[in-house]
Design a protein that fits this description.
about 120 residues, mainly beta, 6-stranded mixed sheet, 4-stranded antiparallel sheet, globular
Length: about 120
């Protein structure tokens, strides 16, 4: 299990952009598919996007499809989430974690320990 550190969140107006980063420790980082999750106040943490270990395949929930792009740089042990055309409903704390697979039943967190997350606030 690796340590995960999210960064890049902040305050942005509707329609703006942010690029989130998830830095992970461990030589085995590249062995895992990775995902982004988010949690809004009063709501459960939810899955947002995932990427395979090689970066060859990605998946996004419908609410962010076409606006968010997940990518990874295994040499830097880092996963990114480029968020464009942000909406107030995107406001949440964003977390990363390994996932079992990009496929439907695999979009669940694999590591028990979560990072601090990074706050994204989109004003209207």
């Amino acid at each position: 299990q690796v340590q995960l550190v999210e960064s890049g969140g902040g305050l942005v107006q509707t329609g703006g952009s942010l690029r989130l980063s998830c830095a992970a420790s461990g030589r085995t980082f590249s062995n895992y598919a990775m995902g982004w999750f988010r949690q809004a106040p009063g709501k459960e943490r939810e899955f947002v996007a995932a990427i395979t270990w090689s970066g060859g395949s990605t998946y996004y929930v419908d609410s962010v499809k076409g606006r968010f792009t997940i990518s990874r740089d295994n040499a830097k042990n880092t996963v990114y989430l480029q968020m464009n055309s942000l909406k107030p409903e995107d406001t949440a704390v964003y977390y990363c974690n390994a996932v079992m697979a990009v496929a439907q039943e695999g979009r669940k967190p694999l590591f028990r320990s979560w990072g601090q997350g990074t706050q994204v606030t989109v004003s209207s």
